[in-house]
Every structure is written in C-alpha cells, then in structure tokens.
C-alpha cells in the first residue's frame, strides 16, 4: 500500500481517537463540576480522557509488538504539545469577544500577558516535574534500565497520588448538573472510536516508518506525536476563545502528567528496553526543561500579584520545539549529510531484521564494510600485534574511553598476545556498546562511523 494512503489512514485514525476522547471528557467535566473541583485541580481528572489517545496508542503498540512507537509518541507529545498549547492560547486570547473577556482582560492584552491562575504551578506543573524525575530514576540507571512491569505499577501509583493532591487542594462547593442519556451513549461510542483510532494510528505509523526506513521510536517522536498534538491545538484554541484561559493552558499539563503515568503502564507491562540511551536521555531532558520553563514563567511572569506568561516567555517556550528538533536531528540522530548521514544509511542497510538495533552478526558485517580491521592491521597479516592494537586505539577510537592496560586482555580472548579479526570485532562491539545492552543503536553506530571516517581523513 502507498505511503500516502497510510498517511491518510493516520490522519483519520487520530481524528477518530480525538473524537472519542472529547466525548469521554464530557462526563468527567460534569463530574468535576458536580464534585466541586476547581478547573486547575479537575485537569488531573479530565486529563484521563484528554490523554486517552496516547493511552490507547500505547496499549495498541504494546499488544501489536511495536512498543517503540508508543514510547516515541509518549515522550514526543510531552515536549511538543506543552509549548504549542501555550503559544496557541496566547494568540487566541489577544482578541476576545466582550462576553468572553474576563475582568482586566484589556489590561492584560496591553501588558502582553497571558494570565493564568497561580495554582497551576503547585497543583499541575510541579507534580508534573516530579513525575518526569521519577520516570528518569526508574528507567535510566544501568542496573534497571528500560521500562519494566514494576515501573508501570509504580507510575500508576504516582498518578493516583498526583490525582489525590490535585483534587484535595482544589475542592469547593459542588454545582448541580444535568445528566443526559445521549451523553452517556456518545461516551460509549467514543470509547469504541478511541480503540479503533489508536489501533490504526499505530498500524499506519508502523507502515510509514517502514516505507521511510526510519526507526519506530523516531516515527513515534516525529510523526505520530506531532499529528496527535494537532487536535489538541484546535481544542485549546476553542477553549481559550471562550475566555477559559487557565483551563486552556493548564489542561495540557494534566493531560501529559497522565500520559507519563497511566500511558506508561501498558508499555512497561511488555518490558521495553532503552535501545538508544543518548536519544532517551535527550528526550527526557527536554520534557523536564519544558516543565521547568512552564512553572517558572507562570510564577514570575505577571506583575502586582498576577501570574502568567509574558510575551517573551511565550516565544521562549515556543522556541524550545525547534531547538529540540534541531538537537535531535543534527546532534543525536545525525540524519543529514556527511559522515553522520552516511553512517545512518549504512546502519539501515545492515539492520536486516529492521528491529532498530544491530545484533553482533549485523554489526560485524557493517564493520567489515567500513574496513576497520584493515585500517588497524598495518602490516596486512592475519592479526593485530599489541603495538598495532595500541596505535589503533589512539588513532581510531579517540572518542572512546578504552583503558589500554586492562582492555588488551579483554580483546585478546585466547591469550596469545595477538588479536585476530574475530577477537577484534568482539572487542570493538564491547567498546561501541556504550550502554552495555549487547545491542548497537543507530547513534552508537554513527559515532563509530564518524570516528572511522575522521581517522581515515587524518592519514
């Protein structure tokens, strides 16, 4: 099937999932009013429905065996959506109808201020930062790196604590609401649409990344996550235009707190390894940066006791997105041109099973293509002498930390003071596998390729 057909399927699937989420959210919003929770506090509850597309995508990706798509979508949506929603709310509220404009709104416009209730920081933003930190603690350290079932249950518990603190802080007298059968039926239909939309979102992304020759996690980060954010942008615009500015700006934090906790569970239950540590840490760092800027800007943005975003703060938060994209594409993935682009292309060629990492056999073929052993083997015989090995470490692995005294014995597996080509490949594999997971990620391979090209140019 043509890739463009899958693009259309992706758009339709995300629309269906978002339609389902909207109709699931309406009963929860009524419950928020009935139980007397503030807008900021209720965001933690309504966020379950708003984040349900991401939850559904993660369930579908876990069940269908492509968990990396869900992982990329989960983290990518956090980095992209939060700045986008703030920028959207700012633009939407510069011109409001008189009936929708709140007290002092004209003054806020003159001051270029996007006024937000200060409770958004303590109730939503700071707990979100704690959630990001907990995710990092659970998934980054080498001893337990990756998403494990225990991590999923812990994150579900974290969400329940987050929900409880938000609701308890923002409680007031409840309102009387009217329940209609039509809303209940639409909520059930929404759940069905959500499930189908999530499944076809994952299926479409899987086929698009296969056609483009990119990894599944990158597809989740740069295809599914931005597409999933589009309906949220339209929703934020609509809410902000009604004058519900705090709701428009804070709901995105509540949504993504749910994404990082409840949506974390289905991926963790199937155990997802961190295949590319550099990529993973970069995404987590930007997710944390977005939360820090969001909190700081609201707290210090206003004057005379008011809180919110000044115009330059809105622009700064929005600028995080292109910086993030640039760092990911040029710094981490290194997808454009030169040795990095060549290395990425070579990685794709030798990643024969298309599982987004090189196993030892695939790695050995790629190393043979680069001609690494021949470069080190200066006298052209069948093995490396100790002198050739030490010279090779200095000249060809300058970007790696290799202890020349201790590591020689680890490369020389049979102890004959010579390093055969087989021993060389195994030793090189260990050196390049920086995170020690017995898999060579694309960024690890590209780093090796760049070292090889640099050393060859220097001769």
From TrEMBL:
Protein's cellular compartments: Membrane
Keyword Magnesium: no
InterPro entries the UniProt entry points to: EF-hand-dom_pair, EF_Hand_1_Ca_BS, EF_hand_dom, NaCa_Exmemb, NCX_ion-bd_dom_sf
Membrane topology field: Multi-pass membrane protein
Keyword set includes Transmembrane: yes
Record GO terms (molecular function): calcium ion binding
Gene Ontology cellular component annotations, sorted alphabetically: membrane
Keywords annotated in UniProt: Membrane, Plasmid, Transmembrane, Transmembrane helix
Transmembrane segments: 6-25, 37-57, 69-93, 125-144, 150-168, 184-202, 208-231, 252-272, 278-302, 314-336
Residue span, EF-hand domain: 420-455
GO biological process per UniProt: transmembrane transport
CDD domains, alphabetized: EFh (cd00051)
Protein name in the entry: Sodium:calcium exchanger
Source organism (scientific name): Pontibacter actiniarum
Lineage: Bacteria, Pseudomonadati, Bacteroidota, Cytophagia, Cytophagales
């Amino acid at each position: 099937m043509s890739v463009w057909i899958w693009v259309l399927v992706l758009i339709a699937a995300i629309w269906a999932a978002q339609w389902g989420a909207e109709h699931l959210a309406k009963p929860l919003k009524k419950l928020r009013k009935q139980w007397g929770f503030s807008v900021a506090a209720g965001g933690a509850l309504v966020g379950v429905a708003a984040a349900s597309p991401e939850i559904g995508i993660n369930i579908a990706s876990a069940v269908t065996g492509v968990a990396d798509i869900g992982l990329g979508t989960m983290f990518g949506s956090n980095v992209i959506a939060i700045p986008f929603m703030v920028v959207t709310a700012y633009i939407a509220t510069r011109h409001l109808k008189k009936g929708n404009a709140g007290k002092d709104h004209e003054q806020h416009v003159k001051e270029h201020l996007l006024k937000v209730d200060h409770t958004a920081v303590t109730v939503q933003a700071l707990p979100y930062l704690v959630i990001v930190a907990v995710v990092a603690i659970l998934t980054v350290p080498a001893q337990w790196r990756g998403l494990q079932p225990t991590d999923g249950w812990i994150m579900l518990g974290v969400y329940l604590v987050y929900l409880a603190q938000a609701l308890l802080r923002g409680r007031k007298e409840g309102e009387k609401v009217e329940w209609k059968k039509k809303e209940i039926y639409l909520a059930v239909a929404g759940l069905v649409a959500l499930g189908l939309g999530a499944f076809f979102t994952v299926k479409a992304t899987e086929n698009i990344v296969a056609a483009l020759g990119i990894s599944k996690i990158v597809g989740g980060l740069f295809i599914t996550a931005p597409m999933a954010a589009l309906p949220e942008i339209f929703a934020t615009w609509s809410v902000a235009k009604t004058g519900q500015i705090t709701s428009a700006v804070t709901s995105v934090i509540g949504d993504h707190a749910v994404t990082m906790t409840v949506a974390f569970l289905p991926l963790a239950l199937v155990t997802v390894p961190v295949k590319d540590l550099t990529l993973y840490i970069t995404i987590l760092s930007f997710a944390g940066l977005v939360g820090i800027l969001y909190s700081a800007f609201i707290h210090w943005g206003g004057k005379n006791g008011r809180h919110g975003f000044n115009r330059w703060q809105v622009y700064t938060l929005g600028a995080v997105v292109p910086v993030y994209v640039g760092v990911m594409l040029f710094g981490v993935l290194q997808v454009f041109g030169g040795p990095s682009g060549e290395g990425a292309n070579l990685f794709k060629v030798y990643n024969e099973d298309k599982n987004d990492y090189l196993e030892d056999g695939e790695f050995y073929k790629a190393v043979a293509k680069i001609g690494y052993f021949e470069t080190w083997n200066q006298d052209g015989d069948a093995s490396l002498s100790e002198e050739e090995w030490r010279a090779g470490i200095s000249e060809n692995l300058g970007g790696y930390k290799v202890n020349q005294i201790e590591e020689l014995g680890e490369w020389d597996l049979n102890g004959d003071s010579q390093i055969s080509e087989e021993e060389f490949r195994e030793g090189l594999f260990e050196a390049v596998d920086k995170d020690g997971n017995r898999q060579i990620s694309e960024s690890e391979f590209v780093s090796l390729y760049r070292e090889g090209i640099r050393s060859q140019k220097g001769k």
